[in-house]
Amino acid sequence: MTGGVHDERRDRKDRAGSSHKDILRSLRPLRSRVAIAIAALLPAAVGASFDHAYGPYAKVIRDHVQMPSVDYSALKKGRVALDAAVDAFAQATQAEEQAWTREQRLAFWINAYNAFTLRTIVDHYPIRGSWLTLQPRNSIRQIDGVWTTMRWRAAGRELTLDDIEHQILRHELKEPRIHFAINCASVSCPALPPEPYRAETLDAQLDEAARRYLASPEGLRIDGDTLRVSSILRWYGEDFVERFASIAPEGRDQTERAVRGVIIRFGPPEAGALARKASTRIRFLSYDWSLNDIR
Questions:
Q1: Which one, 4, 170, 213, 227, has least CB within 10 Å?
Q2: If you average pLDDT over every residue of the chain, what do you get?
């Protein structure tokens, strides 16, 4: 009797154990599917966390940019907002940034470059270089290592301004119009606009930046049968060859054709007409590295 009871209990225990194992086995595919679904949702959740409208940075530049200048004194007094805008670029992860569209990445790195430049100036403002320097005393060039040594945190990386400009914007994303969008805090540099660059309007914004610069005396001047253009196009003319050299007439070297093509595409009509003429000479303006301060 006792043995029979034990045998029955053992059978029930074995059946219960088997049933429990069967249930666990049946749940494995479900657990896998749930895990896959969660993993698939993670990038979207992370991507949605970054503010591609650049709210904090937008407020900073709206409040302190008066094109073509910046009110650095007021910006220094209200630097808490600038610090928050700079910190926002560190919130994105590298994996997230790599998953963005080309336009999102371009807007991110252009805005980051410009925000970090503002922070650099504010950290050293007022800039007073030596009387013996060859550069303007208030120039960004008075700051040691400004482009090559000082490092900034953005999208999971530690980068210099040169890293952002030359490695990411020029060589990786290959966008020549960034030369009209990134700001070096100098009088001869393309003006910093009072609105961030944004992915959904980026192409139009870059075109507008090019037109605005070539309509300014710092970007382009007509001097008889000579077009005097910013030295930016001398330093980086090769970046424009692939997209703009074909616009200009044949008969020139590729870089000069690219410069003429840029003028034809973005310059004022009179300058564009001159750029098409073989007799028109291209010369480059001296670059004024004085700080683009409002004062």
A1: 4
A2: 89
Q: Per the structure block, which two tokens stand in for 198? A: 């944004």
Question: What angle (nearest 5°) sits at the alpha carbon of residue 107, between those of residues 106 and 108?
Answer: 90
Domain range annotation of the chain: 50-284
CB atoms within 10 A of CB 170: 17
Q: State the Cα–Cα distance between residues 237 and 218, nearest whole angstrom.
A: 17
Lowest mean pLDDT among 44-53, 88-97, 117-126, 233-242: 44-53
Q: Are residues 272 and 263 in contact, defined by beta-carbon separation less than 8 angstroms? A: yes
Q: Assess contact for 47 and 100: CB atoms under 8 A.
A: yes
d(CA 146, CA 143): 6
Find out whether 230 and 284 touch, Cβ atoms under 8 Å. yes
Q: Are 187 and 290 in contact (CB under 8 A)?
A: yes
Q: pTM of the predicted model, to two decimals?
A: 0.84
Quick one: three-class SS letters along 255-292?
HHHHHHHHHHHHCCHHHHHHHCCCCCEEEECCCCCCEC
Structure tokens at 273: 């007409």
Kindly state the average pLDDT of the residues 130-135. Answer: 85
Q: Are the beta carbons of 182 and 211 closer than 8 angstroms?
A: no
Q: Hey, which bits of 33-187 come out as E strands?
A: 65-66, 69-70, 152-154, 157-159
DSSP state of 165: I
